């Protein structure tokens, strides 16, 4: 397994592989499986903040102001991570566990999953479109979803299976 780490609170600003930048402005190369990115900050990437392949593990990261997605993975785990102010969706993934994370102020969806994922204990707020967009076999539990999609009077969630105590604004989610 190959590992890419932003450990020790270090920041990734313009990562390079040899003399060439990764993947048009993303902080983590796409074609690496079993990637681990943790304990750092990725700010202002031209394209995607973290773009990782199968079985990515993203922990304790601050991913902000990327030109497109904050985090885009094909499965794995996203834990205790802040994704904010990105040019598109905060977190996009499939077959993943997203736990204890925050997706705020993004210009697309807060979080989007395509199949068999679990979103729990997270805050999804003030994103320009829906807070959560999920396939029917994604479960969301114990999250706070607020003020997305132009305000709490508008739909906050599309799809998914509601379990536990999810809160939309100041009330239980529908």
Summarize the structure.
The chain is mainly beta and 174 residues long. It contains no helices and 18 strands. It is 0% helix and 48% strand.
Describe the structure.
The chain has 174 residues and is mainly beta. It has strands at residues 11-12, 16-17, 20-21, 36-43, 50-64, 71-79, 82-84, 91-93, 96-99, 102-104, 111-113, 118-120, 123-125, 132-141, 144-146, 157-163, 167-168, 171-172. The strands form two sheets. Strands 6-8-11-14-12-9 form a six-stranded parallel beta barrel.
Q: Note the run of SSEs as H and E.
A: EEEEEEEEEEEEEEEEEE
Percent range for β-strand residues: over 45%
* N- to C-terminal distance: 42 Å
**What characterizes the major β-sheet?**
6 strands, parallel, barrel
Class derived from helix and strand content: mainly beta
Tally of strands: 18
Unreliable runs: 1-24
Rg: 15 Å
Shape: globular
What's the rounded overall pLDDT mean?
86
Number of helical stretches of at least 4 residues: 0
Helical content, roughly?
under 10%
Instruction: Give the strand line-up of the largest sheet.
Output: 6-8-11-14-12-9
């Amino acid at each position: 397994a190959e590992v890419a780490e932003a450990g020790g609170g270090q920041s990734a600003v313009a990562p390079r592989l040899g003399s060439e930048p990764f993947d048009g402005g993303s902080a983590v190369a796409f074609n690496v499986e079993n990637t681990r990115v943790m304990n750092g900050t990725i700010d202002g990437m031209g394209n995607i903040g973290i773009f990782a392949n199968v079985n990515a593990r993203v922990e304790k990261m601050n991913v902000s102001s990327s030109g497109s997605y904050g985090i885009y993975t094909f499965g794995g785990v996203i834990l205790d991570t802040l994704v904010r102010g990105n040019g598109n969706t905060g977190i996009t993934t499939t077959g993943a566990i997203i736990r204890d994370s925050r997706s705020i102020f993004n210009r697309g969806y807060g979080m989007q999953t395509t199949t068999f994922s679990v979103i729990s204990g997270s805050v999804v707020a003030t994103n320009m479109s829906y807070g959560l967009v999920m396939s029917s076999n994604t479960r969301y539990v114990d999250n706070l979803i607020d003020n997305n999609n132009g305000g709490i009077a508008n739909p906050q969630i599309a799809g998914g299976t509601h379990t536990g105590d999810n809160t939309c604004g100041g009330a239980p989610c529908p």
